[in-house]
Design brief:
mainly beta, 8-stranded mixed beta sheet, 3-stranded antiparallel beta sheet, globular, 13% helix, single chain
Length: 195
């Protein structure tokens, strides 16, 4: 499920509401879990498998919004690793340009379907389905292209496929322009304010 529009908020409103004490002197990403909390899915519930979240590209000269998903696509066990699905916790993390899907066995014409995305550069904090404690580490919680019929996430942050090419192109361009080797990703919950 996809909203009719990209998130409609101004740069000033986003910074004031979610990043009041952050100086924007580089390109960064802001993820807002539950951006459409009461207008999509079940009211007052953080749904899975829909693009009800938002990710913003913010730099000294750019402010762009994208429909996103910051949750796994489903509840339960991730059979690939025999652990609960990972939910990235609110916080500040570092990402870098890399390849998503390099471990996939599916191939087309003999080539692996890996593509350019944002991959973890630093440990992240996750809460797994069925667990009550936070795990910290390198779990391949990437920021990548989602799917049309699914959000395509086992814990990753995904952008709707119609918006993906623009998103990754602008992120790469801004990082190059500002000479950044990595990019900060700040994930917040819609109902919580950053201090």
């Amino acid at each position: 499920m996809l909203p009719l529009n990209k998130p409609l908020i101004t740069r000033h409103e986003a910074l004031e509401k979610y990043l009041p004490n952050v100086n924007i002197d580089e390109c960064l990403l802001l993820g807002v879990r539950g951006y459409y909390l009461n207008t999509m899915g079940e009211r007052n519930k953080n749904d899975r498998a829909i693009y009800d979240d938002a990710i913003f590209i913010i730099s000294p000269s750019i402010f762009l919004s994208y429909n996103a998903n910051t949750d796994p696509s489903r509840y339960g066990i991730n059979a690939k690793i025999n652990k609960g699905m990972a939910v990235l916790q609110a916080g500040e993390y570092l990402y870098q340009i890399g390849k998503h899907g390099i471990n996939r066995e599916r191939q087309t014409n003999g080539r692996v379907k890996a593509y350019t995305a944002l991959v973890q550069k630093s440990p992240v904090n996750v809460l797994r389905d069925g667990k009550n404690s936070i795990e910290s580490g390198m779990f391949a919680i990437n920021i990548h292209r989602g799917g049309d019929a699914t959000t395509s996430s086992e814990g990753c942050q995904t952008i709707h496929p119609v918006q993906w090419d623009e998103f990754i192109s602008i992120v790469q361009g801004e990082m190059k322009r500002l000479k950044q080797k990595d990019i900060k990703y700040i994930l917040v919950e819609e109902n919580e304010k950053r201090k």
